[in-house]
Amino acid sequence: MNAVRDPQRYQLSFTAGALYLPGAPIAAGLYLRLHDWTQVREELRVDNLLQARTGATATRWSRELVQRLETLTADEVALLADATSDELAQLMWAATCRRYALIAEFAEEVLRDRFLLMQTELAHEHFDAFVNGKTLWHEELTELEPATYRKLRSNLFKMLREGGLITEDGTIIPTVLSVRVREQLARRTPSDVRFFPTREPA
Fold it and tell me: Domain residues of the chain, as ranges?
């Protein structure tokens, strides 16, 4: 019965690293040269291009960043290597949503919906209510240790702030997608514009 309702368990490994905004263009540039994500991950790790404090952290960050970048198309990776700061944040938020269904659903069902309903605040309690509503179909959420859950929630809100989606006090910031990013996001069905607080059609 559970498999019929929802066969996909949530990936829940986004406990650190936020959006990797400084490292993403570096990784994109490496990929445009190497055309191999495994090699990109190794160069990021071996040369500590993400400036991690320990080898273990460098390994984890490199793996995490590459897993998100692998969700991008070739055109999006090329754009990422040449992106403005706003475009970089928008592309990395989209990549994060593609990698993590839980974040994608929160972005669409809570962040975007609250914006469209002119409810301008986004707080931890909204995430808690969202997760509680998902536990019926996702038993893995009930298995999280409290400390791990707090890390997931904290890092998600850190990503929202880094992505320019909310302010430090949790006010939702309307997203103005660049023409180049909007064009890329709209190529998917449904459009990944749905991950952003904007009135542009998704």
Answer: 19-70, 85-195
191 near 185, Cβ under 8 Å? Answer: yes
- Is this structure's pTM higher than 0.90? yes
Biggest CA-to-CA distance, the chain: 47
My answer on whether omega of the bond before 197 falls inside 30° of 0, hence cis, is no
Tens digit of each residue's pLDDT (9 = 90 or more) over 101-127:
999 999 999 999 999 999 999 999 999
Q: How far apart are CA 201 and CA 8, in angstroms?
A: 27
User: What's the angle, vertex CA 142, arms to CA 66 and CA 145, rounded to 5?
Assistant: 70
- Cα separation, 118 vs 17, in Å, equals 30
The CATH number that domain 85-195 falls under is 1.10.3540.10
Measured distance CA(130)–CA(132) in Å, rounded: 5
Contact call for residues 111 and 197 (beta carbons, < 8 A):
yes
- Structure-block tokens of residue 93: 């938020």
Q: Is the pLDDT of residue 67 over 60?
A: yes
Q: Are the C-beta atoms of residues 165 and 93 closer than 8 Å to each other?
A: yes
Task: Give 127-169 pLDDT, tens digit per residue.
Answer: 999 999 999 999 999 999 999 999 999 999 999 999 999 999 9
Closest by alpha carbon to 202, among 125, 94, 129, 101?
A: 94
Alpha-carbon 133 to chain mean position? 21
Only one residue has tokens 């449904």, namely: 190
